[in-house]
Write a structure and sequence with these properties.
- By secondary structure, the chain is an alpha+beta fold.
- The protein has 4 domains: 10-17 and 83-174, 2-Layer Sandwich (Alpha-Beta Plaits); 18-81, MutS, DNA mismatch repair protein, domain I; 175-232, Orthogonal Bundle (DNA polymerase, domain 1); 248-359, DNA polymerase, Y-family, little finger domain (Dna Ligase, domain 1, 2-Layer Sandwich), CATH 3.30.1490.100.
- Helix content is 40%, strand content 21%.
- It has helices at 18-26, 52-55, 65-71, 82-99, 125-140, 152-159, 175-180, 192-200, 206-211, 214-221, 223-232, 262-283, 315-329, 353-359, and strands at residues 10-15, 35-37, 49-50, 76-78, 103-107, 110-114, 144-149, 167-169, 248-259, 287-296, 301-312, 337-347.
- The protein has a 5-stranded mixed beta sheet with strand order 5-6-1-7-8. A 4-stranded antiparallel beta sheet has the order 9-12-10-11, covered by helices on one side. The protein has a 3-stranded mixed beta sheet with strand order 3-2-4.
- A hairpin with a 4-residue loop joins β10 and β11 (301-312).
- α4 (82-99) runs antiparallel to α5 (125-140).
- The protein is globular, with a radius of gyration of 22 Å.
- Bound molecules: 2'-deoxycytidine-5'-triphosphate and magnesium ion (MG).
- Magnesium ion binds next to β1.
Length: 363
């Protein structure tokens, strides 16, 4: 019988400046320097991540490399080495499985673990987290930050608080105070749009959210309102779900030079469609929605999607759909393009647990 009142011990682990730390580990001459991984110094491409030394200059993930260079002219650009990051990711996953099999990876460098029961038979989440951090360092020579809390969203916020090499424990009796002082943006599910709507209601913090009448919240925000009311009370019922299913497969390319010719873009799309189709075949999960992403030379980025009558993993159909979107609903051919991407979502059998949970009737 499942005891739904059982207080769970959840750990969120996230590696520090992951790609950059791997590069600094393997190339001692880069240690202590501001480095950017991804892109290149001509200003093409975007920063995948950067070392903490580079962050001191204001450089951040997803920033154009040209801007990174302006912020810190001495920054060192390093090419990505995905094979290395995947290897480190595999090593940290092995560590997680020393502790429990209830591991839900979110990306190469990040995972939730439910350690309520664990293979080490440790009682306290703090001790489990210390073990994980120490074993990760032993195995990879890289540092990780961890958050320990009774639920996922608080654990994730906590892991980010004392980076790098941080460990933050929010015990059950402190959850309410912890959430009270959080800006609403930190609450799971609150993106920029919801944050704006909450602000119009005078809600900026977890405390203000908690004290807001739930029926009014629901009147303004529908089901999201009820959900947020629960989260603000520390009630995040999402379980740690191993082998979380992928939501989409995609391929994108930052071009060496801005491209105006539509035929050139179509050739890129065809290549990308082949890669995406191969990936869908590999996971045996065709998808229904084809999305084309373009970034124009002025960095305006658009996506255009089309949902097909049935799921596909045909590279021809994916390419044809993306090219149709390109010709009918973008400015390709008129405005220079610097990035092209194709992705397929709505994968068959992809019942995302979080979406499922959102669809549940709330009490
Ligand atoms: N990444 C990327 N593009 C982004 C964001 C991240 O390619 N826009 C990659 C590079 C990161 C890795 O994913 O190293 C992990 O992402 P995180 O958000 O965890 O960032 P870091 O681990 O680099 O830094 P932090 O110490 O803040 O976690
Ligand atoms: Mg990280």
């Amino acid at each position: 019988m499942e005891d739904i009142d059982l207080i769970r011990r959840i750990i969120h682990v996230d590696m520090d400046a992951f790609y950059a730390s791997v590069e600094q580990r393997d190339r001692p001459e880069l240690r202590g320097l501001p480095i950017v991984v991804g892109g290149n110094p001509d200003g093409r491409g975007v920063v995948a991540t950067c070392s903490y030394e580079a962050r001191a200059f204001g450089i951040r993930s997803a920033m154009p490399c040209s801007q990174a260079k302006r912020l810190c002219p001495n920054v060192v650009f390093v090419q990505t080495n995905m094979a290395k990051y995947k290897e480190a990711s595999r090593q940290i996953r092995d560590v997680f499985h020393e502790v429990t099999d209830l591991v839900e990876p979110l990306s190469l460098d990040e995972a939730y673990l439910d350690v309520t029961e664990n293979k080490l038979n440790l009682q306290y989440g703090r001790d489990v987290a210390k073990y994980i951090k120490a074993r990760i360092f032993e195995s990879t020579r890289l540092t990780a930050s961890a958050g320990v809390a009774p639920n996922k969203f608080v654990a994730k916020v906590a892991s980010d608080l004392r980076k790098p090499d941080g460990l933050v424990i929010i015990p059950p009796e402190q959850v309410a105070d912890f959430i009270a002082q959080l800006p609403v943006r930190k609450i799971w599910g609150v993106g920029p749009a919801t944050a704006k709507r909450l602000e119009l209601l005078g809600i900026r913090t977890g405390l203000e959210l908690r004290n807001f009448p739930p029926d009014r919240l629901q009147a303004h925000l529908g089901r999201t309102g009820r959900l947020l009311h629960r989260l603000a009370h520390g009630d995040d019922p999402r379980r740690v779900t191993p082998n979380r299913v992928a939501k989409s497969r995609g391929s994108e390319t930052t071009l060496d030079q801005d491209v105006i010719h539509i035929e050139t873009i179509e050739r890129i799309i065809q290549d990308q469609a082949r890669q995406v189709a191969a990936s869908l075949l590999n996971i045996k999960r065709p998808g229904k929605t084809v999305t084309l992403k373009l970034r124009y030379s002025d960095f305006e980025t658009i996506t255009r999607s089309r949902t097909l009558p049935s799921a596909t993993s045909s590279s021809e159909l994916i390419a044809e759909t993306a090219c149709h979107l390109l010709r009918t609903s973008t400015h390709a051919g008129e405005r220079p393009v610097r990035l092209v991407g194709v992705s397929v979502s709505g994968l068959l059998g992809a019942d995302d647990p979080e979406q499922l949970w959102l669809a549940l009737p709330l009490p």
